[in-house]
Structures are given as C-alpha cells and as structure tokens.
Amino acid sequence: MMFHNVIVRKPSKTLMEGITSAPELGKPDYELAVKQHDAYIAALKKCGVEVTELEPLEEFPDSCFVEDAAVVTRKCAIITNPGAASRNKEPEYIVDTIRKFYADDQIEYIKAPGTLEGGDVMMVGDHFYVGRSARTNEEGIRQFIEILEKYGLTGSEVTLKEVLHLKTGVNYLENNTFLVSGEFVDKDEFKDAKKIVIPEDEAYAANCIWVNGTVIVPEGYPKVAAAVKSAGYKVITTDTSEYRKIDGGLSCLSLRF
Ligand code: CIR
Q1: Which of 8, 151, 168, 181 is the most exposed place for a label (fewest CB within 10 A)?
Q2: The pTM of the whole model exceeds 0.85
Q3: Is the CATH number 3.75.10.10 carried by domain 5-162+240-256?
Q4: Is omega for the bond preceding 113 within 30 degrees of 0, making it cis?
C-alpha cells in the first residue's frame, strides 16, 4: 500500500475562531500556524507524496482540517456533510480538487439528514471504521457504508463517547497495528489488533499518520515517538501546537490517497 497524493489547505487568518473544546490552551497564533503548516508539508514530501496545496478559506476558520470534508479511497471519493454547522459548507470547496483525481462516477456524496466528517473515518485496507460522534450520525454512517459496498469496500460503526472524532483516539498504521488511547484501548473492535497503547499524558499523539512506512508524530510527545520507533517505524516529528488549540491533529490537516 502506497499513498501518492496528499491534499492540504493553508490555514486562514480566521483560524483563531476555530471550534475548540480546550479554550484554556489559548488562541492559535496565525504566523506560527503557517510555519507549522509548511513544516507539515515538508514532512509529507519526505514520505514521497505529491502535495496539492489549496488556498485558505477565510470564511471557514476550521477549513485547514481538510480531512473532514472528504473521504478518499482507492476506489472512490466521498464528499462529506459535516455535522458542525460552521463547517457544513466546506465540502463545496474541495469538490473541484477531488475531480482532478477521480472521475465523476467515482465521486459520491453524503446527503442531509445524514452527517459525516472524515475525522470519524479510519481506513484499514478495504475496511473503514466509522465513529458515531457528535458530528457523524447514524444516517450518515448508513449512507457511507452503502456507498462503500457499491465499490466492494466495507464499513462498520464504532461508538465513541470521550473524543471529538474517531481518529482523535485511534489510528491505523499498517500490518494490523493501531495506536490506541483512552476508550479505544479495550474496545471489542480492536481486540485482535497489535496495539501501541498511548499513555494518558500523551493522548493527543494518538493522532499520528502513517505515510509510506514512515509515521509522522506530533512534536513534544516523546513516549509515543519512542513507542512507534521501537515498533520498527521511521519517525518524523512535526509541531502542531497551534492546531491542537482548536482540537486539530496531524491527520485532520490532510487527505492522503
Ligand atoms: C473542529 O472542531 O471541527 C475543528 N476545530 C477540529 C477538527 C479536527 N479534525 C479532525 O479531527 N479530523
């Protein structure tokens, strides 16, 4: 399995108005966020992918979290319908870019009353776990699985209670290996997985991304970086402190396919 392409969107100056569950961390610093975004792109390029960089959308403070607007698979792309009201129109601004990579008959849509955000979708080969969250509802999951099945792919629902999105707490690397934190450590769905258990004090770093054999880990989480290294992966760290302030992590900042 190889990723060839990545889509990112530059942060907007309105970033500080992004939705957050952690106001105590303060507001993101725009200039620093831009630097961190450039470093993130550089890290991705080191993993051998072609990066398409979209212009910022000032009217959507959270639009740099491009992962939530679409799900890209090896067979089709699914344009989402985000459950967060302030983010609901973001997918309209990703479709033209998706069209450069997928034929019209490979592009599908989640429609109201269904809602779904890409942060709730975790790809494990041809199977997709979907978190039922405050952003992704039962109807959104039903539509999503129906679409997957049309393309010979499968999906299943995972309930979650503690985190924003499924991938806030669990992420897939490869070879049945998962990073798991909090409520996902003992979940039935992952009982046969090889697990790298994320310590509570580094829970944010459960959101790492595997890109072509390298794992990109957020900077400042040494236990997670060490655990991933000792599982045999090359590790690149990159700082996402400004995105963390508005609940964003490494996976949220890109679409990888
Ligand atoms: C939000 O609440 O929607 C953004 N502030 C953070 C989105 C993070 N995206 C993700 O986990 N895929």
Answers
A1: 151
A2: yes
A3: yes
A4: yes
